[in-house]
Structures are given as C-alpha cells and as structure tokens.
Design brief:
It is an enzyme of class 1 (oxidoreductase). By secondary structure, the protein is α+β, with helices and mostly antiparallel strands. Helix content is 28%, strand content 27%. It has three domains: 3-85, Uridine Diphospho-n-acetylenolpyruvylglucosamine Reductase, domain 2, CATH 3.30.43.10; 92-201, Uridine Diphospho-n-acetylenolpyruvylglucosamine Reductase, domain 3 (2-Layer Sandwich), CATH 3.30.465; 218-300, UDP-N-acetylenolpyruvoylglucosamine reductase, C-terminal domain (Uridine Diphospho-n-acetylenolpyruvylglucosamine Reductase, domain 1).
Length: 303
C-alpha cells in the first residue's frame, strides 16, 4: 500500500495523534541510532491505539510497537509500515496498594511515585531506563527483583484491535521474556500490587541501587544496557572482560571500559556498527570459552 495513502488515512482516522512520514527514529530511541519509519504514529488515547491497529489489520499494513527504545536496536534500513510509539501514554495513578501505569510511562517514574506513596515493591526498577510497556515485554529486572514479582494484570489490545485484560498468571514469564515477546498484544497499561512501607527505608534502598548503578554502568553514553543474557553459572560481562574486549570499537560503537556487558554509542554509531561489534564479541567469547552468548537486546527493522 502506498505510504502517502496510509499517511492521509491516519490523519483522518486519528487526527489528534502525532503522525509523521519517513521520519528518522534515532531521535526517538534511547540508543540514538537506526533508520527511518515509513509512518511514525504517537497516540494519546487507548481508542487511537485500537483504531490504528484495526486499520493496519484491515489494510494488511505491518505495525511495530515501540516505547522509548531502550532495549532495541533499529537497523539502519529502518522499519516498514507503521511504527506505533506509545510514549505519550504516561499517566500513573495510585489507589491504596495498587499502582496503575500507562505503557509509555517511565518505569523509573513509576518507582518514584511508589516511593511518594510509601509503597514497597518497585525499588528494583529505580534505574531501569525503559517504559512500563517495555518492562512488561522483557520482564525487566535488576538487583533481585523483576516485573513478574509485582504485576497484577495488564490491559492490552490484541492483534485484531480488541481490548483484553491479561492476568499475571497468563503471561508466560521467563528470563527477559513474557507472552508479549510473541508480538500478539500491544500493552496499554499495567497494574502493580505493592505493599505499605516506610518512606525512609524505601528511599534508602533506592538510593543504594542508584549508587550501584551509577558507579558500575556507563551512563554517560547511549546504550541498550546489558547486551547479553546471563549464561548458566556465568556472567556475560565477566566473560567479555576476560576475553580482552573492553575498549574494542567498530565505528562509533564500543565495548564499555566501565562495564564489559555494555556496548555504548560513543561517536554517532550506526546500527551496523553496533551489530558488527555484537557479532565480534560473540565470536570471541565462543572461541575462548565455548559459550554462545545470547542477546538480550532486540534487533528490529531492515538492513
């Protein structure tokens, strides 16, 4: 289908949404690299999300959902069809022990709101740079906690545009994966079940985790966080460090000298730079240790 026609149709269908044609995505994702979207749409209501998904189904248009792109690399060829970016859906509310967050809200902000209401449970998320939707998608976790521990349910849109509520028990949790990695659902909001606590002790825990993160991670450069999943009984960063790969660079992408598990964008890296460096790291670790590192980062779009 002609891109200009899709653009015109969406302007009529969801006139209040942000709609852009042939828009570069590097300015809208955490890693600051990647190609163009045929159509980028940023909805502000659940109805708009449903309408866009139903349109894509009816017209056989590919649709890709993004948050802030903190754990994805968009290839330099960009993304065909519609990119549905959820970052305008940011509302967070609290009722007693339940925190409800829209999918485009920052998971860090959600942890801060929990602190304000003296609620335990989201401290682990105080340094995770993704959105709530991305955190559910990946079952994000840090320092012994993960989303699956505190989620109650999620309001989603299925692949036909219908609203559904998925319970925590339905979500097929795994290490950095969930039912959402299958691509059948678009997350609208999440409900978290938390517990009452003392403001001072919650803040102390969050301050401790923030210090650990800032002291160990290369936050001064754009990155996807930990590139590789933890292999059985080992740590990816340690294997990379022992392979002598810290500081190795391809183009503008570099294996961090501060934390070997990170690949950072130090000088206008392209996605091709990043992907080539990932491949080099995997090959080197495989040759030295016989361990095949599996990426935690997701690669999307065209070469």
């Amino acid at each position: 289908m002609d891109i200009s026609q899709i653009y015109e149709d969406l302007q009529t269908l969801v006139p209040k949404a942000v709609i852009q044609c042939h828009e570069t995505l590097k300015g809208y994702v955490y890693t600051q690299m990647g190609g163009n979207a045929d159509i980028r749409v940023v909805p502000s209501t659940y109805d708009e999300v449903q309408s866009i998904i139903k349109y894509a189904v009816d017209h056989n248009v590919m649709i890709t959902t993004l948050g802030n792109g903190s754990n994805v690399v968009i290839r330099d060829g960009g993304i065909r069809g519609i990119v549905l970016q959820m970052t305008n859906l940011q509302e967070i509310t609290v009722s007693e022990h339940t925190l409800v967050a829209q999918s485009g809200a920052s998971i860090i902000h959600a942890s801060q709101i929990a602190l304000q209401h003296q609620l335990n449970g989201l401290e682990f998320a105080c340094g995770i740079p993704g959105t709530v939707g991305g955190a559910l998608y990946m079952n994000a976790g840090a320092y012994g906690g993960e989303v699956a521990d505190v989620l109650l349910d999620a309001l989603v849109v299925d692949s036909t545009g219908q609203l559904l509520t998925l319970r925590k028990e339905d979500m097929k949790w795994g290490y950095r994966q969930s039912i959402f990695t299958g691509g059948q659902y678009t997350i609208l909001q999440a409900r978290f079940g938390l517990e009452s606590g003392e403001h001072s002790s919650i803040k102390e825990k969050m301050d401790e985790l923030t210090f650990l993160r800032e002291s160990k991670q290369p936050l001064e450069y754009p990155s996807c966080g930990s590139v590789f999943k933890r292999p059985p009984n080992r740590f990816a960063g340690q294997l990379i460090q022992e392979s002598g790969l810290q500081g190795v660079r391809i183009g503008g992408a570099e294996v961090s000298t501060k934390h070997a598990g990170f690949i950072v964008n130090v000088d206008n890296a392209t996605a091709s730079d990043y992907i080539a460096l990932v491949a080099h790291v995997r090959e080197t670790v495989r040759e030295k240790f016989g361990i095949d590192l599996e990426t935690e980062v997701k690669f999307i779009g065209e070469e």
